[in-house]
Amino acid sequence: MKKNLDVFVHISTTYCNSDQKVVEERLYPAVVEWEKTIEIAENIDRHTLNVLTEKYIHPQPNTYTFAKCLAEQVVYDMCNGGIPLVVYRPSVIIPSASEPITGWVDNFNGLVGFMVGWGKGLMRIIYSDPNNIVDSLPVDITVKAIIISSWKQATYKDANQKLTASFYNGSNNGVKNINVETILNMGNKIWNEFPFDNVLWYPDPKKITKCYYNYFFQMIISQLVPALLVDGVLKLIGERPMLTRLQRKIHTATVALVYFTHNNWTFVNDKFYHLKYGLLPADVDNFSFEEEDTTIDSYIFNCLVGGKKYLLKKVGDVDKAKKHLLKMWVLAKIVNFLWYLGLFWLYFLKWGVGDFVFYK
Hints:
- InterPro entries: FAR, FAR_C, FAR_NAD-bd, NAD(P)-bd_dom_sf.
- The chain is mostly helical.
- The protein is built from 15 helices and nine strands.
- The chain has one domain (8-316): 3-Layer(aba) Sandwich (Rossmann fold), CATH 3.40.50.
């Protein structure tokens, strides 16, 4: 097998070295030996592993990034000097820019899941730093870059260069820096033109916070309590309750991603962006990618419309969806008015706070 192997390609992630604020296109040696780590995992009981995990993986934030970092070291040690190696680190993958068709996506991971959950009204409060940069690339550009990088490594004329591992950060850092607040504001404009069918609530792009207590309170009031009420009604009429379970998954994912939604990194991507310049003239049309020409609006549009079409499998009547959206907007305003009216009554009439403040 080794004789016939022209190049070994390992898919990692830009976040595998998240303990570094500036991540270059090179190997970062693992802080532990991978052979020893495998031995520990195979010979120590699960309880002891759970106790030791946080200290053992430090400074990595979780076992995912730790395992990704360790995997890079494994393939480097196994291939170095013997097999041409490419380590490609994609950032957050989003729906395709053009191929096989614009907006194509096959899972809810990353930004598209966030946009669908928010657009459907399932996520009423976003727990993130508003200025957090969402580093993302369309899936078709990612695939092209992987193909080009493997071809380039396999066709090096110089033997030493061919056997020297190449690392690429598939990131749009410095080309498109899109923060969470921008995504929500732009998404709101697009979403009002192409709303999802039967949204559960009207999404508010201003409901974003980096304070956990604020997030948790609003999550309970605006997400969990309504989910419990709806599931209660569903159970009474003999239907399967599902919203509470879904809200639990959303909260778990939100907390798990807090390290990434409250921090920013600089991913050096010079080698990645220079990949397209080494193409043969005959391959330019099929494999070149002009990421600089892709607008931020098209990113958001593809996430919303692509998620609606290829994940939710619904391309319904837009006018009907807009009418339903208007009803949800009116209902949201009424509920907000009643909420503040109730607080006013509670504080100033029921508890007499106004008398205490103004007439003491």
